[in-house]
Write a structure and sequence with these properties.
Elements (H helix, E strand, L loop, with lengths): L4 E6 L13 H9 L5 E8 L7 E4 L2 E6 L15 H7 L4 H22 L3 E5 L1 H15 L4 E6 L2 H8 L1 H13 L2 E4 L2 H10 L7 E3 L21 E5 L8 H11 L7 E5 L5 H10 L6 E4 L4 H10 L2 E4 L8 H8 L3 E5 L4 H4 L7 E3 L4 H13 L1 H18 L2 H15 L1
Parallel strand pairs: 1-2, 1-5, 2-4, 5-6, 6-7, 7-8, 9-10, 9-12, 10-11, 12-13, 13-14
Antiparallel strand pairs: 3-4
């Protein structure tokens, strides 16, 4: 048997303990890659109460310290760029973050004789990639990976693009989760088009699957997302309110956390929808399977979404989906085939889509089955790991 090909994941988002959601899809990918002869080691930031080294499901994880434990807040919270905008002096913490990450990566590359470095989230980890390339030269090959926010930041802020440009040009390849993300990057630098490949995020098909023991609630609309402005949840609440005029039994459940939680609850109260709509706290992924299987339709109406993981999870549970005709969602939903698309922020159009699916059981079943087949073939962990393994072996 050929020896395993060693790959180093450099990331600022990875599970810190059993059951942690942070970067959970990366851990899923890392573990699944073993089936294809790829051995992954991970470099990630330390966080309060996390171990500096551990093996999680057989994956070696090295965590670098870059501040006092209680001050290590740049990673895992989804707001690194906002922290830097709010407090420019945090740039010094970020520079230490990059230096410590590079030192730890150097140590592991030398010790394990690693030749492929997979850099996830180009912002800020492009700075680590550039330093490693300068240090090791042709001894290593770097692969960049964008999962959404990082590409939007590169597209929006020219200074960030300039900081990322050396890593972009030096990398042997770059994977992105959707064609939307690819377009954002090429708006900045079309010369690297040949490097970019679209690889969707992996889902755990052993965790998300149709469960016939769970009764479907015929009028339940479900949302699973961060509670941020980008997710446009007030429009979903408005659409469900309007749909209740035709379907009085309709219910809306939204699972998530985020800065808009309080305002969304106030909106529900102001509209007198307490019996119809609920904002619920996030649940473990194993419980999400039950929630998806109970729903009749799952809706994601955010704009410029990098991908849309909730949709593919729902599709693996054989549930009908509705999404805004925006961002990476259009890679997931083929209108009238694997789900329904609607014009972003168009409440009447979203209302119509919800009513159609809830009232037409045949349509609901047809979309759910087609979506299920697409998710199995394109969005499962097995499909994703196979693509990444082929890329790594091509570059090795």
């Amino acid at each position: 048997m050929d020896p395993a090909l060693k790959v180093l994941f450099v990331t600022h988002n990875y599970p810190r303990r059993e059951g942690d959601y942070s970067g959970v899809f990366l851990h899923l990918l890392a573990t699944k890659l073993r089936d294809f002869g790829i051995e992954v080691t991970v470099i990630a930031p330390h966080d309060y109460n996390a171990s500096e080294y551990e093996e999680l499901d057989g994956i070696k994880i090295h965590r670098f310290k870059y501040a006092e434990s209680k001050s290590e807040t740049l990673a895992y919270r989804g707001n690194m760029h906002r922290q830097l905008i709010a407090n420019p002096f945090k740039i010094f913490t970020l520079l230490k973050f990059v230096r410590k990450a590079t030192e730890k990566a150097t140590e592991v590359i030398e010790k394990e004789n690693i030749k492929l470095v997979s850099v996830h989230w180009v912002v800020p980890n492009c700075l680590i990639a550039t330093r490693l390339k300068k240090q090791f030269g042709d001894r290593i090959k770097t692969i960049l990976h964008s999962h959404g926010t990082d590409a939007r930041i590169i597209n929006k802020f020219y200074a960030v693009y300039l900081a990322a440009k050396p890593a972009m040009e030096q990398a042997e390849s770059w994977t992105v989760v959707s064609n939307f993300i690819k377009r954002l990057i090429l708006e900045r630098n079309v010369a690297i088009a040949d490097k970019i490949r679209v690889f969707p995020m992996p889902n755990d098909e052993n965790l998300f699957y149709p469960d016939e023991t769970i009764a479907q609630k015929p009028n339940l609309v479900l949302g699973v997302s961060r509670l941020t402005r980008q997710k446009r949840l007030p429009y979903l609440i408005d659409a469900v309110k309007k749909a209740s005029e035709e379907i009085p039994e309709i219910k809306l459940e939204v699972y998530g956390s985020g800065p808009e939680r309080a305002s969304l609850r106030r909106l529900i109260e102001e509209k007198g929808m307490e019996r119809i709509a609920q904002i619920k706290t996030p649940v473990p992924q194993a419980d999400l399977r039950t929630i998806y299987n109970r729903a009749s339709v799952v809706v994601l109406n955010s704009t410029e979404e990098g991908f849309g993981l909730a949709l593919t999870e729902a599709m693996l549970c054989r549930r009908a989906v509705i999404g805004a005709d925006s961002g990476g969602i259009v890679d997931i939903i083929e209108h009238e085939k694997t789900g329904l698309l609607f014009e972003p922020d168009n409440v009447p159009a979203l209302t119509e889509a919800i009513v159609r699916i809830l009232k037409d059981e045949q349509l609901r079943s047809r979309l759910a089955e087609a979506g299920y087949q697409k998710a199995l073939n394109g969005f499962s962990s097995d499909a994703a790991a196979k693509k990444f393994a082929e890329l790594y072996r091509e570059l090795a």
